[in-house]
Amino acid sequence: MGESEESMVKIIFSGLDNAGKTSILTALEKKYNFEDYIAKLRPTIKVDYKKTIFMGRIVNFWDMGGQQKYREQYKSRAEFYFSDTDLFIYLIDIQDEEKLPTSIEYLNDVLDFFAESQMDVPIIITFHKFDPDLRNDEVILDRIESLKEQITKKLPDFKILFQQTSIYDIISIVQLVSYGLSIFDERFFDLSELMEKYIDILKSLSLILFDQNGIIISEFYSEEINQDLYIELLEDIREHIFILKRMEEEHTLVNDLTDMEGKIMWFLDRIQIKNENFFLSALINKDKRELLEDNFGNLREEVVNILTEMF
Questions:
Q1: What was the pLDDT predicted at 158?
Q2: Among 65, 79, 69, 71, which residue's Cα sits nearest to residue 13?
Q3: Dihedrals φ, ψ of 184, to 5°?
Q4: 3-state secondary structure of 131
Q5: Average pLDDT per run of 10 along the chain, which is 311 residues long?
Q6: How many separate helices (H) and strands (E) can be counted in the chain?
Q7: pTM attached to this predicted model
Q8: Which one, of 304, 245, 228, 244, lies nearest residue 254 by Cα?
């Protein structure tokens, strides 16, 4: 597909300095195998660009530096920076109470531009650094609710989805991106719900759907998946693609992960939609293999139906 205007998507990651934008994009870089589009513009502009091809669309990510001098520059040239935005993701460091008023003020400035320009932009506001040890912290929880109320009262006409994320909770990052991608096609929600349903039916550790380049289309994980294991899963995906490309005559691949004491196994199945190859992966404990064999076919059939509709 050529880089036509219709096929290009612009996603902005914005927020104050040290809000966590780059750390999230680094996590996504491992997941989506970004190519460097433009490493940096002039130092005075301070925007990092990354791009990937996702389901036939060119997705451009704008990582906008959050220091005050850069924010002033973005506001003075708002039409250049914020026009043609397809999705606006704004990060608020929920742990930095001192910067919260400034963060809300900058958010209002950007959304005022969208309103004045009559841009109907989907917005995700994520309260970042909501780390696992803060989930029951009454002060933090009250702070989040107060900010939600403050933002929605000020901006009632915007479509805003609130999220809570932490770089120490990879599932929260996955959900952030999944919700973002759903603006392109609501069937991403269908895939996500399907994965959530079958991870319970199969008693699986993970279910991942990815394309022939290793880019993840949909995924769901059990609570047993920690940060280290998640990174290992992503690295294994690349290896599995290489193996399957050398085994063109094979349809499925079963692989024991002996580095995990031989208790866990991969099951990988190829799905072809028109001329595109996709791979459906399940990671399970070996004692759940019978559950997988009994139910994986139903999961595969439902995935095929959704992918067929999407193409």
A1: 80
A2: 65
A3: -85, -30
A4: coil
A5: 58 87 67 42 57 76 88 90 92 94 94 90 91 91 93 80 83 72 74 90 90 76 72 67 58 48 77 85 88 92 92 74
A6: 9, 12
A7: 0.69
A8: 244
Integer CA distances (angstroms), 171 to 38, 177, 280, 293, in order = 29, 10, 19, 26
Q: Which helix (H) or strand (E) holds 61?
A: strand 57-64
pLDDT at 243 (0 to 100): 64
Beta carbons within 10 angstroms of residue 266's beta carbon: 19
CA dist 288 → 193, 226, 272 (Å): 21, 20, 27
CA distances from 130 to 3, 144, 164 (A): 37, 10, 6
Strands (E), 171-231: 206-211, 216-221
Report strand pairing: 8-15 vs 35-38. unpaired
> Tell me, what amino acid is at 149?
E
Q: How far is CA 125 from the centre of its chain?
A: 14
Cα 170–178–188 angle (5° rounding)? Answer: 140
Task: Count Cβ atoms within 10 A of the Cβ of residue 58 and give its class: 0-12 exposed, 13-18 middle, 19 or more buried.
Answer: middle
- Check residue 237 and give its pLDDT: 66
> How many angstroms separate the Cα of 60 from the Cα of each of 13, 50, 51, 210?
11, 6, 4, 19
Task: Determine the 3-state secondary structure of 302 from DSSP.
Answer: helix
Contact assessment for residue 167 and residue 28, using Cβ atoms and an 8 Å cutoff: no
Contacts of 169 (CB under 8 A, 6+ apart): 130, 131, 132
